[in-house]
Amino acid sequence: MGEGQTKRPNIVFILTDDQGAWAMGCAGNGEVKTPNLDRLAASGVRFDNFFCTSPVCSPARASLFTGRIPSQHGVHDWIREGSVGPNAIEYLAGQLAYTDVLAENGYVCGLSGKWHLGDSVKPQKGFTHWFVHQTGGSPYYNAPMIRDGQPYNEPAYVTDVITDDALAFLDRQAEEGEGQPFYLSVHYTAPHSPWLNGNHPQEYLDMYADCPGESTPLHTPKHPWLIKTAPGEDNRLESLRGYYASITAMDANVGRILDKLEAQGLTEDTLIVFMGDNGFNFGHHGVFGKGNGTFPQNMYDTSVKVPAIFSQPGRIPQGVVSAAMASGYDFMPTLLEYAGLQNPVAEDLPGRSFLPQLLGETPGERTDVVIFDEYGPVRMIRYEEWKYVHRYPYGPHELYDLANDPDESANLIDAPEHRETREAMKAQLEQWFVRYVDPAIDGAREPVSGFGQLAEAGVRGKGKKAYHDLE
Question: N or C terminus of the chain with fewer C-beta within 10 Å?
Fold first, then answer.
């Protein structure tokens, strides 16, 4: 711990589902209303270049918790089967999560909301409080939840209910915690679809009744690889309005959490992290959805960049927007270092702590950082000014000059003048993945469709069909 710290910080980690990095007022979006996220950003550091490790929910979430890339933890697509029932699968069994380390060092760990990493009935990874969604996504009313080990359908609006449970956890800690630090994960299903047909309170829908939808390129022609994994394409403007309504409803609940911590006098003792699991496209590149909005899967910045805000007044600088590049695989080492704890598996993990940048202790950004992503057989390497995407085994591949083409509109893969750049980036990508991939669950050999994972990957699956077919 840093000088002057007498106790470990409490940690509240708020994670949203399918929220594009562009879908916040503080990120420059003039249509979506996020006053509480804007307030949180003003009190801390917002990262403009934070990347998920895989542009779909379950793999990205597994990487946040374990610090491993998908080809190390084995979750290569969103979990379609194995969440509940007699054939439930604990996809991260035997893998250390940062919450395990926190719990072993005296933290009381609670989870309210979406788990979506298998065997949802069973509390895992050091959590002693466990109120979770049975699967991943669902309607916002009558959502399938698990409370006290019992599956049930929640009649109330699930965004509110997740927050109610989180606030009850905070109240219990205030009354019974005996000074123990706490870690609380608040994992909203918002703003994941559905957005229409009465899924959100009318008061929030009314806020967007006249929204023109000018904050996204809604009318871009459809991408030729577009597949039906998100519903926004069919009713574009009304879907965007519903998407924004779900975000504003979630934002109001974030405000409830911030207010509770303030009322308890815990704001300066608590690290608050707000993050999205993966990016999202609402017409960007002609895509509606995330990495699996197309087949083959895409690695556009709008799919792989996520919102990321860190706040603890008195320790983290306020009102800072950082251009430093960081990844979901950097989250575990950063969080543990922030809490003053050793990472016992650091040598096996690809991530590196960005704590100096977070605390403003270094004058410059992390200029030598390279970002790597994977989604099944699709892999990406990204520099500050260049991006290369490789699709095993046959392509198509992509190369973008981000300095001159930030919208990734001109694929330079066949441009002879960029051959050396392409070859150097491909070589670096292959060397990096060879270093960290577990050959038994190597995503480059997995037939990931974007329509869900059915069983464990690679040899762990013992011959079972591991992925749903392309629809």
Answer: C
**Could you tell me the CA-to-CA distances from 172 to 48, 129, 168 in Å, in that order?**
35, 11, 6
Which CATH class name applies to 10-363+452-461?
A: alpha beta
- pLDDT at residue number 362: 74
Distance of alpha carbon 123 from alpha carbon 215, whole angstroms: 40
The structure's pTM equals 0.97
pLDDT the model gives residue 230: 76
Neighbours of 180 (CB within 10 A): 13
Tokens describing residue 137:
């996504």
Q: Is 49 helix (H, G, I), strand (E, B) or coil?
A: strand
Alpha-carbon span 124 to 18, nearest angstrom: 24
CA dihedral 223, 224, 227, 230 (to 10 degrees): 10
Cα dihedral: 54, 133, 24, 182 (round 10) = -90
Which one, of 376, 390, 463, 375, lies nearest residue 430 by Cα? 390
- The answer to whether 81 and 452 have CB atoms below 8 angstroms apart is yes
Distance CA(120)–CA(117), nearest Å, equals 7
Residue with token string 């979630």: 250
Instruction: Tell which residue, 124, 186, 127, has the closest CA to residue 158.
Output: 186
Question: Cβ distance 304 to 411 under 8 Å?
Answer: no
Q: What is the pLDDT of residue 2?
A: 39
CB-CB contact of 191 with 250 (8 Å): yes
Domains of the chain, by residue range, sit at: 10-363+452-461
Is residue 233 over pLDDT 90?
A: no
Cβ–Cβ under 8 Å, residues 276 and 56: no
Which residue from 395, 376, 380, 389 is spatially nearest to 467, judged by alpha carbons?
Answer: 376
127: tokens are 């959590």
Q: Which H or E run contains 73?
A: helix 70-73
Residues 6+ apart with CB under 8 A from 414: none
Ranges of H-type helices in 194-346:
202-206, 236-263, 301-304, 331-338
- How many angstroms separate the CA atoms of 119 and 265, rounded? 36
Q: Which two tokens stand for residue 431?
A: 């060397």
Q: With residue 435 as reference, give the H or E element that holds it.
A: helix 419-436
301's CB contacts (< 8 A; 6+ apart) are 279, 387, 402, 406, 408
Q: Which amino acid, 409?
A: S
pLDDT tier for residue 363 given thresholds of 50, 70 and 90: low
